[in-house]
Amino acid sequence: MVTCSAPGKLILFGEHAVVFGEPALSIAVDLRVSTRVEGSDAFAVNGQSLDRRKYRYVKNAIGEVWRGGPLEMRVDSSVPVAAGLGSSAAVTISTLGALLHMQGEFNPVAIAQSGFRVELKVQGNASPIDTTTSTHGGGILVERSPRSGLLWSLSRDEKKWFLHDCPLPDLSLVVGDTGVKAETGPLVLGVKKLAAKSETARDQIKEIGRITLKGKAALQDGDISLAGELMNENHKLLNSLGVGHPALDKLISACEGLSYGAKLTGAGGGGSMVALTDEPEELAGRIREAGGEPFIVRYSPEGVRLEV
Ligand code: MEV
């Protein structure tokens, strides 16, 4: 029997734009998914059929790497589902970690590469940011070309993403889950269609890439006010790309006066927002009053790991 766990993630800058090859910055957070795997007579996840839609990431992870017989699996998660916090990536990576370990092939590059392929299969369009963040942990910067701190690069068609380790200072962040569930695949497809027909949208995607690099520099310089302003700008651009939601804007407005800045995080269309603050408890109360579910999250340096 093997148990492996992997963290959820929070995109600070650059979601959606990263699918087009623009820079993006994310961190792993202290919410995790664990997958326990053991040999069995028939495939099952949490006592249910592997064919259930909610287990499609697990099923595709098995299809991607597993060469053995039937397995009984148990998946436990503290990452809210379809809320922009990388629950699918964490399920995928913890499952792949367990399976690859059972085959004597546990290594982060193999896990990240397989994880990206699984997300692509399930979602149709994806970047490797979620799966790399869940695999490696800490801060991850995606760029168009290699720099110091390069972990690995992944490519698809003519696109190539260079994934870098990007240590960040400890940030005080509050996530607000709107409770509006939204799937990543259709949202990414919507932005793709918009970009295909609108030059304005293509410019906005490039602008998000520029904001990401400025945001990363501001965070590393400790200029939290500037980082917050850039988050606000990033959010406006995401709204223009059609991935906002009134429930997100309501939670973001509720943070005014208590946060340096806030934006949606992840695919949007509902899901979650994130605010940068130094009054996390008070801000969490505001989010709850406005109808959201708050999570005070912390940066987690740890990625995928085997549990004893
Ligand atoms: C979802 O967490 C992030 C998106 O940029 C999709 C992706 O990068 O695969 C919306």
List its traits.
single chain, 308 residues, alpha+beta, Alpha-Beta Plaits, 2 domains, 26% strand, binds (R)-mevalonate
How would you characterize the overall build of this protein?
Helix content is 40%, strand content 26%. The chain is α+β, with helices and mostly antiparallel strands. It folds into 2 domains: 2-168, Ribosomal Protein S5, domain 2; 173-297, Alpha-Beta Plaits (2-Layer Sandwich). Strands 1, 2, 3, 4, 5, 6, 7 and 12 form an 8-stranded mixed β-sheet that branches. The longest helix is centred in the C-terminal third of the chain and has 23 residues, at 199-221. It is globular. The termini are close together. The site of (R)-mevalonate has 13 residues, from α4 and α5. (R)-mevalonate binds next to α4 and α5.
Helix content: 25-40%
Number of strands: 12
Low-confidence stretches: none
CATH class of the largest domain: Alpha Beta
The DSSP helix count reads 9
Give the termini distance in whole angstroms.
10 Å
User: Could you tell me which ligands this complex binds, including any ions or cofactors?
Assistant: (R)-mevalonate
In terms of DSSP E residues, the strand content is: 25-35%
Query: Which class of secondary structure composition applies to the elements?
Result: alpha+beta
Order of helices and strands: EEEHEHHHEEEEHHHHEEHEE
Per CATH, what is the topology of the largest domain? Ribosomal Protein S5, domain 2
What is the CA-atom radius of gyration, in angstroms? 18 Å
Count of domains: 2
Main β-sheet description: 8 strands, mixed
Q: Using the alpha-carbon principal axes, give the shape.
A: globular
By CATH, the architecture of the largest domain is named 2-Layer Sandwich
Write down the overall mean pLDDT.
96
